[in-house]
Design brief:
There is one protein chain. Helix 2 runs parallel beside helix 4 and helix 3 packs across helix 4. 36% of the residues are buried. Helix content is 33%, strand content 29%. The radius of gyration is 24 Å and the shape is globular. It contains ten helices and 14 strands. It has a six-stranded mixed beta sheet, sandwiched between helices. Strands 1, 2, 3 and 5 form a four-stranded antiparallel beta sheet that branches. The protein is of the alpha/beta class.
């Protein structure tokens, strides 16, 4: 759906984007992550045609594009239903039901209220409804969950997940757990450069330090003391009164020897399982 080659954007001597080669597959949910100032908003703006490139090229396979900025704004005297209906008419004049979309994004009860009194979270939901009403093939979302409460985040993430296969979604977020939950592909920006792009599982596998969660019967202290003397165990952390996290040097060593070390320590093991790395763990490793 999207391909960029050597895409660059400079503001004077400052390079906001530096030779970015982006590849977004049709029907995917692509998460764009990176520290503040990494170039996420600049990249989305260029994909939307709102900013021009200093160098490089952009190829997009559709003209049916919808964009939700991180701080959507609407004329305050318009009602919510009017905002979405106007977006429908100005776009493709699609047959999407406006009231259904307002319900889907969680503001159906406010359909006849003027948006001037809406909270930031309600404006975010309204913006999402206005973005989707035209049945776009490509949806660009800049921090779509940033102003939402936990329930609102849950509803928006569920909605984004349902778009997979129906539309192509690119969204930036600083909430890495959200990206891990709904995205199949991830791009990591740092200082304007794309330092990783690929399937989420490619990023997570083999990147983070191996952790094991071990649930034990009390007492824990003698077991912890003995494990801390093992050379290949880097750290032992008490998670709760019956649960410890063991950090090993490598996955193969832990798989071969952890059970034996626990037995040698006299541990009464209830359960033992590797702790899957989170996107946040891996992100911190990659951007450092």
């Amino acid at each position: 759906m999207i391909r960029t080659s050597g895409l660059s954007k400079s503001y004077g001597a400052t390079a906001a984007l530096d030779k970015v080669d982006l590849n977004v597959s049709r029907g995917s949910v692509y998460g764009l992550v990176g520290p503040n100032g990494a170039g996420k908003t600049t990249l989305l703006g260029m994909l939307a045609g709102l900013r021009t490139a200093t160098a490089g090229s952009i190829e997009i396979e559709t003209a049916r594009i919808a964009v939700l900025p991180d701080t959507p704004y609407f004329d305050p005297w318009l009602k919510a239903r009017e905002v979405v209906d106007l977006a429908r008419a100005l776009g493709s004049n699609s047959s999407r039901d406006v009231d259904e979309l307002l319900e889907l994004t969680g503001i159906g009860d406010a359909a006849d209220r003027a948006v001037g009194g809406f909270s930031r979270g309600m404006l975010q939901r309204l913006g999402l409804a206005a973005t989707l009403v035209g049945d776009p093939e490509l949806v660009l979302l800049d921090e779509p969950c940033s102003a939402l409460d936990p329930l609102g985040r849950r509803e928006v993430l569920d909605l984004i997940a349902r778009l997979r296969g129906e539309a192509t979604v690119v969204f930036s977020s600083h909430i890495l757990a959200d990206v891990q939950e709904v995205c199949d592909t991830v791009g990591i920006l740092r200082r304007g450069r794309l330092i990783f792009e690929g399937r989420l599982e490619q990023l997570l596998v083999g990147k983070a330090v191996p952790h094991y969660l071990v649930r034990l019967r009390a007492p824990l202290e003698p077991v912890i003391a003995q494990l801390q003397e093992v050379g290949w165990i880097n750290h032992v952390e008490v998670v709760d009164p019956e649960l410890i996290r063991v950090t090993a040097e490598s996955l193969p060593v832990a798989e071969a020897a952890l059970v034996g070390e626990l037995a040698a320590a006299g541990a009464h093991v209830v359960s033992l399982a590797p702790e899957a790395p989170s996107l946040e763990d891996v992100f911190l490793e990659v951007v450092r």
